[in-house]
Amino acid sequence: MADSEEAEEQSPPTAWNPLTPGGVASYANAPLGQLIFTQAIVASIVFAATLFYLSRAWIPVINSAVEKFPNGSELGDEGLRVVGSHPLVLGENTLLSATWVTNDAVNPDADIELRLNRKSWSASSLLGYVTLPYPPFVEIDLSRENLASKWGAYRSAAVPGLAAAITIGLWLSWVAMAAIYAWPIRVIVFFRDKLTSRLGSWKLCAASLLPAAVFMSAAIVFYTLGKIPLAGLLIAFLAHFVIGWLYIFLSAVALPLIPEAEQMKGNPFAKGGTKKKAGKKRNPFGKGK
Questions:
Q1: pLDDT tens-digit profile of 66-109?
Q2: 3-state SS, residue 136
Q3: Per-residue DSSP letters for 161-229?
Q4: Are 68 and 142 in contact (CB under 8 A)?
Q5: Structural element, H or E, at residue 30
């Protein structure tokens, strides 16, 4: 009976809830596979939100541009040549606009404005303005027939592929950011006598980033639906970093105590020297728990 109770106490916890500090703390000492599984679920939410934004903002503009590029238009060594009158609004909605212009005669009302000129293209938004030249040694036939056939063939794979690439990049950033955050958290865990290992500190930080990703995905959906402005989306982007940091520190506090500190906590007559002695033997950057 005693052996079964001891084995039950030593068994790793089951981690499934990354939305509370206590739930995030459980990932620190849980198997790595549980964290990966939860990351996959959150990544699917990010993928869906990104795909929703691209489908509502970018796809209609690209479809319109494909239909409006006049025959005979091309991109070559001499820059972009568009046959017909100027300026020409290629596509526009409240989120994105694309315009072929030779001056500043057109000012579409969109959160992100793309302008195509003869030698360069520019993008402007609340964040600022940037101008980039067209890639050299590139020749593209921009006639309506050619663009329609090419876009029709690759659209079904290009949009989900871009959303998947963004999601994979975010997943890799979780790995890198958790590795950075794990160092100061390991020191805090050590001095507060919390039970976890060096890998556990990384898992805690990685799990702490997931609530922020869910929050940002919701902000993207609300922005795409027009419920919040672009300024609100930028505020949400900054806030999601703060959310991640809060979860990291609150989850570190929610970690269980090491057995020595737990025993002293329950024994008011224990000597103060015991805790110091146990603490000196531990290394915050060691491999053990």
A1: 888 877 788 877 778 877 666 778 888 899 988 887 555 555 67
A2: coil
A3: HHHHHHHHHHHHHHHHHHHHHHHHHHHHHHHTTB---HHHHHHHHHHHHHHHHHHHHHHHHHHHTTSS-
A4: no
A5: none
Nearest CA to 207 out of 183, 184, 182, 187 is that of: 182
Cα 17–chain centre separation: 19
| Identity of the residue numbered 253 | V
Helical packing angle, 230-253 and 144-191, nearest 10°: 30
Question: What's the half-sphere exposure (Cβ side, CA atoms, 13 Å) at 102?
Answer: 10
Tell the residue number behind the tokens 């970018």, with chain if given: 58
The maximal CA–CA distance of the chain, rounded, in angstroms, is 91
Among 17-31, 136-150, 189-203, the minimum mean pLDDT is found in 189-203
198-224 vs 144-191: helix axis angle to the nearest 10?
A: 140
The model carries a pTM of 0.80
